[in-house]
Specification:
single chain; alpha/beta; TIM Barrel; eight-stranded parallel β-sheet; 8 strands; 40% helix; 16% strand; binds zinc ion
Length: 258
């Protein structure tokens, strides 16, 4: 049986997370990158991380919660990251379907600053705000970028893929939505992602969907399923290894004129 890593899940939402982890293990999903939504689920994620070596934790404020985040969240986030070098940042970002994009941008930039301060891999949610996202990255040239970024459930335009991959050390994660042929934009985007940048995720508390998701990715990329599983597993370990690392890519956006 192949080994898989769920690159973006929400195990904290499972009725019984331990059962969800056991079920996923039986499907070959051996590790989990567990993303938070808001400060009120950070403790649940940290508890899972402490109890299960297979759970990698991310803390952050999702754009849906940018407006209702309570006081002191920045200091709490910094304290948690300072105490635990393996914890990542996520999920953070922008969503045009939710109000207060100005607030979303401010909260996102604050979290990118924190991610840079602690050199943490950052998991990003972006829906319908790709121009704003790229603009933020470009205007951060003097404020740096995290060591790597993961664009989760990627369905962005194909003309930004190369820039995100090469200038900002971006990786692209695909959810089970890729199995639905109606998601043409997402499936088309996958065709343009370099093989060493592809990840697979459940975006839920059910990581058992990862093998089928990887099989669909393999089909779309015209690669054998076994080979695709190995490539995606390897890519995900490479992403996690960059957590805490100051890599040459950290400042790759500097001085770029376009
Ligand atoms: Zn998510």
């Amino acid at each position: 049986m192949h080994k898989y890593i769920d690159a973006h899940c929400h195990l904290q939402n499972a009725p019984i997370p331990t059962t969800a982890i056991d079920t996923a293990h039986r499907a070959g999903v051996m590790e989990f990158i567990c993303n938070s939504g808001a400060p009120d689920d950070w403790n649940a994620i940290l508890k899972l991380h402490d109890a299960h070596p297979s759970v990698h934790a991310c803390i952050g404020v999702h754009p849906w919660h940018a407006s209702d985040v309570g006081p002191d969240w920045q200091m709490r986030m910094e304290n948690i990251l300072a105490a635990a070098p393996d914890i990542m940042v996520g999920e953070v970002g922008l969503d045009k379907h939710y109000p207060s994009v100005t607030t979303q941008v401010a909260v996102f930039n604050t979290q990118l600053d924190i991610a840079c301060e602690f050199a943490r891999v950052t998991h990003i949610h972006c829906v319908g705000a790709w121009d704003t996202l790229v603009h933020i990255f470009k205007t951060r040239t003097m404020r740096r970028m995290p060591p790597a970024i993961v664009l989760h459930a990627f369905s962005g335009p194909i003309n930004i893929i190369e820039k995100l991959a090469n200038e900002y050390n971006g990786y692209f994660s695909f959810s089970p939505m890729i199995m639905d042929v109606r998601h043409r934009r997402m499936r088309h985007a996958l065709c343009h992602i370099p093989m060493d940048r592809i990840l697979a995720e459940s975006d839920s508390d059910n990581s058992s969907v990862i093998p089928d998701t990887v099989n669909t990715i393999a089909e779309i990329k015209s690669v054998a399923s076994d080979k695709m599983a190995d490539i995606i597993y390897h890519n995900t370990t490479v992403v996690m290894k960059q957590n805490g690392q100051i890599t040459p890519n950290t400042n790759a956006g500097w001085g770029c004129g376009d």
